[in-house]
Design goal:
By secondary structure, this protein is of the alpha/beta class. The protein has a domain at 68-220 and 285-323: Rossmann fold (3-Layer(aba) Sandwich). The chain has helices at 24-29, 38-47, 82-87, 103-113, 128-132, 143-150, 173-176, 180-194, 208-217, 229-241, 260-273, 285-288, 307-323; strands at 5-8, 15-18, 90-94, 118-120, 166-167, 198-202, 220-225, 247-251, 276-277. Strands 5-4-6-3-7-8-9 form a seven-stranded parallel beta sheet, with helices on both faces.
């Protein structure tokens, strides 16, 4: 006989009794996708991701409701008809308290999948701007810094479908970043002017003023999670610092051999914070040393060594769409 346990419900902040089910299998078994192999399948097995999740409702177009949020700081302040709110651009902020968790790669690929401009608020050289192929030292001006100075809406650089359109970051942004409220207002203004369904914002590790502003403006804050001690320490601090933000945790770079103690610790953090958990993205060694500027999710056919990680990234994009529908 199957016992019951308190697990996360699709609505944020609610605990209900159901047969015990791993929250990660919601993200991986509710979508129709080709069979996964290699490290992804093994990671699924280690995480207990092979069980069916028929208890969770499926919304329009077959998209499950597991990622919907019941509370959004920015959306709660909006007025107007549901149709007006639905038509507003959705800001997707990717944030992490610690570097090295795959934040920039996640932002880059999700932006490409959503056909969204990518606003790079990370001023380090290893960010999305450098990966895109943009070199600030070869440019006379910076559209990001100019927009802060003159108040005009910056024009994204075109990625032509192979990489996301980009508002390039700049090292000087570290000393010129606005206060959180001002940054949130600017991002909302830019998103409305661009008229695109989604805007993705990559932030500096630890967020800082501009990063916190991007979180204030966000319909969803995507937080990549690594199963390692220091990274989980940082995540615990984040969950305590911003408990009311619309967070979506993405278990990222999942190795072939999943560290069980860290997985149990993450489960406890999720249960206590009642934070939504999205799809799993497996570790892919070739992605760590990738030199191409194009997004790996834009390549056709998908390289064989990247099929599992691309499948995971596409599910993350689907989860973001589902999360921001309300």
């Amino acid at each position: 006989m199957t016992s019951t346990a308190a697990v996360l419900s699709p609505s944020r902040g609610t605990v209900i009794n159901r047969p015990p089910v791993n929250p990660w299998n919601i993200a991986l078994t509710s979508f129709n996708s080709p069979p996964r192999s290699g490290c992804f399948r093994e990671a699924e097995s280690a995480l207990g991701l092979n069980n069916a999740v028929s208890q969770y409702q499926v919304g329009p177009n077959g998209i499950p409701d597991y990622a919907r949020h019941a509370h959004c700081c920015r959306c709660a302040t909006l007025s107007g008809s549901p149709a007006t709110i639905e038509a507003m651009p959705k800001i997707i902020t990717v944030a992490a308290a610690k570097g090295g968790v795959g934040k920039t790669t996640l932002a880059y690929e999700v932006a490409c999948l959503l056909d969204a401009p990518l606003v790079d608020l990370d001023w380090d050289e290893g960010g999305a701007t450098r990966r895109w192929g943009y070199r600030h030292e070869e440019r006379v001006r910076s559209s990001l810094l100019d927009a802060l100075e003159n108040g005009r809406v910056p024009t994204p650089l075109a990625g032509h479908g192979r990489k996301p359109d980009l508002i390039a970051g700049h090292p000087d942004f570290a000393s010129q970043q606005p206060d959180p409220e001002d940054m949130a207002e600017l991002l909302t203004k830019w998103a409305a002017a661009w008229g695109r369904p989604y805007v993705v914002v990559d932030t500096h590790p630890g967020a800082a003023h501009a990063g916190h502003g991007a979180m204030l403006a966000a319909s969803v804050v995507v937080v990549p999670v690594i199963l390692a001690t220091n990274e989980l320490n940082a995540l615990e601090g984040t969950l305590k610092e911003v408990p009311d933000y619309p967070l979506l945790l993405i278990l990222n770079k999942v190795p072939r051999a999943v560290p069980r103690p860290e997985l149990r610790r993450l489960r406890r953090l999720v249960e206590v914070s009642q934070t939504q958990v999205g799809p799993v993205v497996p570790f892919c060694r070739s992605l760590e040393t990738r030199k191409r500027h194009s997004a790996v999710t834009s390549e056709e056919p998908v390289p064989a060594v990247a099929r599992d990680v691309v499948a995971g990234l596409r599910k993350v994009a689907d989860a973001v769409r589902s999360y921001t529908r309300d």
